[in-house]
């Protein structure tokens, strides 16, 4: 009996060069795979997320998409959607791609995707988060500072109190005084466990998106961010689209032009995997639109 093979591609997302940004493994044909097998494959790759493309279940979507961290299945994530759309448009998959507009059916709800092209070539994608911003509770400033190993006065509450918020995947958000504070972070695992016990919970129990605004002009922001998740998948993530969408939505709430807000978010710099995430909130209460470029890294087959 021949051994079954499963095709995959690896893509770096939120970057224009290989070995930067955030890698995602995309299983191009996941038909017949069980959830247990999908989880094992995600563990084998060890990336923050691995995606599994299944044929669409109806005529209104392009594919069903399942997303796994090395530890669990999650309802939504930013860079996996963008990377999967890039692969679906450039490789042979079981997705139905008939135009530059795709819809992925996911646990967190349908995700609309628009392919980005340059001189006719697909270079990335723009996704719309599955839900508008939801703030799920405030966080104690001292607790956030303890998690990050920083003095409490380096955690700001001028724009908004540190809080847990989501546009499809929840994170805790905390503004830091400046980029030096971001660079000085030293994670305290015991404090993260205490924060998880207190709640509100986030993805991976308790994960923090720490950021510093480097410049702003009206409703346009430039931001440096780091996302930490030491209780779950890799302790630091080089690019986190879902967190970037919620962060920009929070910035829009803190004062924008009728809710409009645009942010360019640099992440992964301290990890040596610089990433650039572009986010726009079109109007008050609107869902975040997250844009990123992609670079193909490798492709092959898995043996089952």
From TrEMBL:
<dbReference type="Pfam" id="PF02567">
    <property type="entry name" value="PhzC-PhzF"/>
</dbReference>
<comment type="similarity">
    <text>Belongs to the PhzF family.</text>
</comment>
<protein>
    <submittedName>
        <fullName>PhzF family phenazine biosynthesis protein</fullName>
    </submittedName>
</protein>
<dbReference type="GO" id="GO:0016853">
    <property type="term" value="F:isomerase activity"/>
</dbReference>
<dbReference type="GO" id="GO:0005737">
    <property type="term" value="C:cytoplasm"/>
</dbReference>
<feature type="active site">
    <location>
        <position position="49"/>
    </location>
</feature>
<dbReference type="InterPro" id="IPR003719">
    <property type="entry name" value="Phenazine_PhzF-like"/>
</dbReference>
């Amino acid at each position: 009996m021949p051994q079954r093979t499963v095709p995959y591609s690896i893509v770096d997302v939120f970057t224009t060069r290989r070995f930067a940004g955030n890698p995602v493994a995309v299983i191009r044909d996941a038909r017949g795979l069980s959830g247990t097998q999908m989880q094992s494959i995600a563990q084998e790759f060890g990336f923050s997320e691995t995606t599994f493309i299944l044929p669409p279940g109806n005529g209104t979507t392009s594919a069903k998409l399942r997303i796994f961290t090395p530890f669990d299945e999650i309802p939504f994530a930013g860079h996996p959607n963008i990377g999967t759309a890039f692969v679906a448009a450039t490789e042979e998959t079981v997705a139905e791609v008939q135009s530059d507009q795709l819809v992925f059916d996911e646990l967190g709800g349908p995700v609309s995707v628009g392919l980005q092209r340059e001189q006719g070539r697909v270079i990335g994608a723009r996704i719309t988060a599955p839900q508008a911003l939801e703030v799920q509770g405030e966080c104690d400033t001292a607790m956030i500072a303890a998690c990050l190993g920083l003095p409490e006065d380096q955690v700001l509450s001028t724009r908004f109190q540190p809080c847990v918020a989501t546009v499809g995947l929840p994170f805790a958000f905390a503004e830091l005084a400046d980029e030096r504070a971001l660079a000085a972070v030293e994670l305290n695992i015991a404090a993260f466990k205490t924060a998880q016990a207190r709640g509100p919970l986030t993805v991976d129990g308790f994960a923090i998106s720490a950021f510093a605004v480097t410049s702003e002009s009206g409703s346009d922001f430039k931001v440096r961010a780091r996302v930490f998740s030491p209780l779950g998948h890799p302790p630091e993530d080089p690019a986190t689209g879902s967190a970037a969408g919620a962060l920009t939505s929070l910035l829009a709430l803190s004062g924008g032009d009728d809710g409009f807000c645009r942010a360019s978010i640099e992440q992964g710099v301290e990890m040596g995997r610089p990433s650039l995430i572009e986010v726009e909130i079109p109007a008050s209460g609107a869902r975040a639109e997250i844009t990123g470029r992609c670079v193909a890294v490798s492709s092959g087959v898995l043996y089952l």
